[in-house]
Amino acid sequence: METITRRQALRRVGLLGAGLGVGLAAGCTPLKIVFHAYPRRFDDDASLVDRTLAALAETILPGSDQDPHELARALRDERYEIAEYRNYLAADLSDRSRRLYGTKVFEDLGLAERERVVNDALSADRTTCKLYSGAIFLTQIAFFAGIYDDEAGCPLIDFDGRYRLRRLEELTYPDPHTYLTSAATENGCHA
Amino acid sequence: MSAKKTDVLVIGSGFGAAAPALRLSEAGFGVTILEKGPNIDAPGDFKQTQDPAYFLNYFKSTEGDNISMSFIEGLGGGSGFYEMISLRAPSPAFEQEDEWGRRVWPAGIDRATLDPYFEMAERMLHVQQIPVDRIPKNGLIFSKMMKNLGYSCDRSRYAYIPGRCVGSGFCAYGCLYGAKQSLHFNYLPRASEAGARLLTGIEVRSIRQLGDVLGTAREGELADIPYRYEVRARNLETGENVRYRCRLLLLGAGTVGTGLLLEGSRDRLPGLSRALGRRLAFNGGVKAVGLLSDEWPDGDMFTGQSQPGMISYEFMESHGVTVSTAKPLPLQAIAAARFRLSGEGPTPSHFGAAHMELMKQLRRRVIVLFALGLTPPSARLELDDGRPRLSLELTPGLRAYHTRTKELLQSILIRNGCRPLDLEFVDGKGMPREDIFFSTAHQVGSCPMADSKSLGVVDVTGEAFDLPGLYVTDGAAIPGSIAVSTSLTILANAERIAEGILRRYRATARRAA
Lengths: 191, 513
Prior knowledge:
The complex is a heterodimer.
Chain A: H1 6-20, H2 29-34, H3 41-44, H4 46-60, H5 68-71, H6 73-76, H7 86-101, H8 111-122, H9 126-144, H10 168-171
Chain B: E1 4-11, H1 15-26, E2 31-35, H2 52-58, E3 59-64, E4 67-72, H3 91-94, H4 111-125, E5 127-129, H5 137-148, E6 154-155, E7 157-159, H6 187-193, E8 197-200, E9 202-209, E10 220-221, E11 229-235, E12 241-251, H7 254-264, E13 286-291, E14 310-312, H8 316-319, E15 321-326, H9 330-336, E16 337-341, H10 353-360, H11 362-365, E17 366-373, E18 379-384, E19 387-392, H12 396-414, E20 419-425, E21 438-440, E22 470-472, H13 487-504, E23 505-506, H14 509-512
Parallel strand pairs in B: 1-2, 1-12, 2-8, 4-21, 10-23, 12-22
Antiparallel strand pairs in B: 3-4, 5-7, 6-14, 9-11, 11-12, 13-17, 13-20, 14-15, 15-17, 16-20, 18-19
Helix pairs in contact in B: 1-6, 1-13, 4-13
């Protein structure tokens, strides 16, 4: 664990509390992040964090046909606040894997086991739940909305990413009158 | 730092600001428009992307207890990014009463009063009903659902040129095709041509009155009236502080922007009403989502206009709501709510295999119904230690409205064979909301028009009580929910206020010429 003064620690606790919108009373998780109270290897080994987060993204989006490393891109994107906590997130996944299944390697678990690990975190203290909810939220947004590639979009949900010119007939049905019902107004505006 | 001087200073460039800016410029007044957001060269600056960075450049929101309010900061205000729906406020909206039985709108304004101004606004924006052969699939499916149940459903009205609309589905991201008739194509360029000076990236920080404004004239030649207000502003690009002095000050910075600006200036505007920020209305939006059953044809969530063409007034009298269907793109859908199949049990399935299967059906088989309602003006907007604080008390009446309306929407889905989806609305970090939560872009009424200073901030002419020459011309002045998109009503009311100003004040003959 790195050495910091009490004053520094208090300042950082304050910042973190503001960032996550939680009080320290919520549990001991914020302190773990502030004091980097998790195995040092998660701060030192970027590839370990990347592999763990890729496995997390695969768990959130199974069967996506996309490179898992790419699926987890948003979790590493410094534009989003969660990237600041990615090392802790990877360490927490490892810790929960150990407690639930006796292995520290989250990515070695099967999909169902990994889902259980994530659900375990979602039902933990509020801060942990926020962290995991945020990770799921951002990973899903990045994938389904195709935020990193306007050309590709998200083929899985048939989202083109941007508009591909289509014939008018594709946008509507050829027999619209069969769908219409009586109108309450003359021109679309309520009197 | 010397102050720049202008006859008329307009703050904001959206629906509430653009009409008076144009009309007063045309009449020969010297008009300066200050817009906080960036310049937008429409349609060239718009993009079809789901990158949140693009959207968040313009899209802002403020969030509080049980409610959030979204708005656009950029030239043209919300007009570049709204869904073009342009409907007149229904008559029942003007008849709403508050909890003490008083009419929410001031005497002298009803639908008939506003109709001539609606016509002016509609002409300017090319508002028309969507042609039958252009109604997107989801709109037709919604109409058929209403037909099956014996209900009425109307073709909606849009500010657009149908022949230019390619149905991209990116309406809320700015129209690349010049189909949407945002203010960039009518009011704003015409105001510039008429001599208005339009500045973007200028954030107004505060307003102060110059001397005893109460003694100044409320009519006559404007050049004879002293400069009554000074605003302090900052150029967001250069960091330069600037001051402007004006004879007429028109606030059109939006319901949130105008409300906060006035609240932050309260100590320099001693006559300002205490009713400021006390009674915001929000059009009570409620949503329900379902999966189409096999007998229904495919919808299309991603192409065709974002608001797909149809609106039902069937429940206006019985429930005080209008019902429509919506087509969020993936970013908006995921950022708003977790979807789950109803009856799946307690295990979270907003991620993983089950969620993936559901998402595969989003484009073709999911239908979203939403209602807008005549909910009472009961939200509050304040400044708490210099920071915005928004709140809404979930009264038993409001809870009952939400339950009743949600049941109505679900009933429409279920009686048409749809399987309802559980919707769990989330905050900006993906955490589920713990109670009923109203997200709106239809906020109005932070500075409502009223018959007296105890009830509102401005009178029926839009002028602030005890602050002559200071007008609120935007949604902040609209005193109640209207159950349809607010843009056209804000614009029509701004036209009405501008006409009233022109009846009171004259430009000098030389300038008018």
